[in-house]
């Protein structure tokens, strides 16, 4: 996922011709396919739960997940995998969505757990985590970005469609980083529960945001942001 020119030794020459042979080597490093990344925010959950295991989806949250799963299925795309946060609300959302996408493998990861990615600018008065939380969560969420958001592997021949079920803070930070916007602005965006954010990563590394927090497929009375 690096710029291909950065992966080739330009100084190495062909001993027979005396010409740089990096052209053929470059071809082996270039991506050929486009990656489609669908970032799904978990559905509404029980805010009164003290521990993560108690923060299960509400009845409305389960309805939202059904609607999101139906919407994804209606897109008619061949999804490759669903990678989800290991937190309860994301796991439950994934289980409901996956019923609409039979055969798509599910992978759980701690990297996508909710957290405080970076101190927001401008600051907000209603949410002020301790500074240490930014260091702990921020490094992990940045690692998630670097691990999952990149151009296709050079060996990938066909376009891919991947789903990531996680959390609002994680998605907002990833969007800023992917678009090369100042990541401190992540809190200026708002995402509904069960919403779909669609990023496209071209073979040349360019990233486009097709949708941000789309819930147009939900009836107005089913939309929440808790």
TrEMBL record:
Task: Show the catalytic activity.
Answer: O-phospho-L-threonyl-[protein] + H2O = L-threonyl-[protein] + phosphate; O-phospho-L-seryl-[protein] + H2O = L-seryl-[protein] + phosphate
| One GO BP | programmed cell death
User: Where located?
Assistant: Mitochondrion outer membrane
- What SUPFAM superfamilies does the annotation carry? Phosphoglycerate mutase-like (SSF53254)
Could you list this entry's UniProt keywords, alphabetically sorted. Answer: Hydrolase, Membrane, Mitochondrion, Mitochondrion outer membrane, Necrosis
Report the top EC class in one word: hydrolase
GO MF terms on file? protein serine/threonine phosphatase activity
UniProt family annotation? Belongs to the phosphoglycerate mutase family. BPG-dependent PGAM subfamily.
Which protein, by its recorded name, is this? Serine/threonine-protein phosphatase PGAM5, mitochondrial
Which species expresses this protein natively? Answer: Rhinopomastus cyanomelas
């Amino acid at each position: 996922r690096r710029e291909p020119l950065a992966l080739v030794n330009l100084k190495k020459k062909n001993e027979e011709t005396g010409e740089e042979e990096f052209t053929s080597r470059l071809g082996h490093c270039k991506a050929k396919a486009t990656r489609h990344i669908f970032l799904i925010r978990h559905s509404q959950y029980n805010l009164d739960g003290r521990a993560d295991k108690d923060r299960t989806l509400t009845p409305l949250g389960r309805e939202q997940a059904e609607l999101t799963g139906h919407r994804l299925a209606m897109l008619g795309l061949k999804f490759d995998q669903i990678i989800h946060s290991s937190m309860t609300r994301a796991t439950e959302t994934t289980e409901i969505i996956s019923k609409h996408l039979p055969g798509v493998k599910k992978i759980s990861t701690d990297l996508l757990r909710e957290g405080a990615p970076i101190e927001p600018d401008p600051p907000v008065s209603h949410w002020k985590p301790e500074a240490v939380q930014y260091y702990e969560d921020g490094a992990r969420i940045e690692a998630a970005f670097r691990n999952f958001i990149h151009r296709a592997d050079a060996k990938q021949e066909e376009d891919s469609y991947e789903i990531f079920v996680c959390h609002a803070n994680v998605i907002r930070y990833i969007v800023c980083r992917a678009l090369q916007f100042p990541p401190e602005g992540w809190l200026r965006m708002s995402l509904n529960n069960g919403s779909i954010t669609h990023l496209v990563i071209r073979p040349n590394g360019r990233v486009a945001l097709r949708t941000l927090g789309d819930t147009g497929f939900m009836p107005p009375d089913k939309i929440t942001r808790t």
